[in-house]
């Protein structure tokens, strides 16, 4: 009787594992909406309930287990491995991350702003490429994500290069000059909620935080998509804009980054 019950449980668990690990991800891969719904909502809720933990906490554990303290590249690899093989997460990811690396290296900014920290993956990617005196300010309005991000950034040994501020971009951008002593940003990475991109680029303009030559790099311009922002930077004579085609992090769904240079 017990043997029957145990084999029933084992069989059920194996079927669930195959369904959630392979069959459903493969089935939703053709649809950007279903892919996001599955990875970013349904599976996350299931795993949260099963493990009594959050996705950022699980990601942090993977970093602490697999990455070497003080080695940013090992932190990036640990997160990419976790997200490719265990659990998807909304980091910019390895494929678009390589484009982000190229743009950051090319701009070589003295002052940089990131909108949307999440667990600190892109923060680590950007900060590891910055010269010692450079300042990266990253904004995150979810305090639970910020707690994890601080630990990920510290594990990479980059805490002295990064100022993580907890709050909403719409409230913090107007305080950048007075409260944070920023004159202008050389580089801005937009990767927060997509309906804020257009509002915040206009806010950055109004607050005088963009200079001639400031580079803005926007993630997820196709999936989930930021059509109003794209139209603005592509049709506005104050910007020179270019699209970099890629894929939504850790999937085959099309996504890309928009690089826009502010012309003053
Ligand atoms: C896509 S995730 C960022 C991923 C991160 N840049 C990376 O690649 O590792 C978006 C994050 O932006 C945060 N966020 C969304 N809207 C925001 C806002 N208006 N101000 C500050 N943070 C925001 C969310 O809480 C979420 O953690």
UniProtKB/TrEMBL annotation:
Keyword field contains Transmembrane helix: no
GO BP field: catecholamine catabolic process; developmental process; dopamine metabolic process; methylation
Record field: catalytic activity: a catechol + S-adenosyl-L-methionine = a guaiacol + S-adenosyl-L-homocysteine + H(+)
Keyword Repeat: no
Family matches, as InterPro entries: SAM-dependent_MTases_sf (IPR029063), SAM_O-MeTrfase (IPR002935)
Keywords: Catecholamine metabolism, Methyltransferase, Neurotransmitter degradation, S-adenosyl-L-methionine, Transferase
Enzyme Commission number, as recorded: 2.1.1.6
One of the Pfam families matching this protein, by short name: Methyltransf_3
GO MF annotation list: catechol O-methyltransferase activity
Homology family: Belongs to the class I-like SAM-binding methyltransferase superfamily. Cation-dependent O-methyltransferase family.
Protein name: catechol O-methyltransferase
Origin species: Paramormyrops kingsleyae
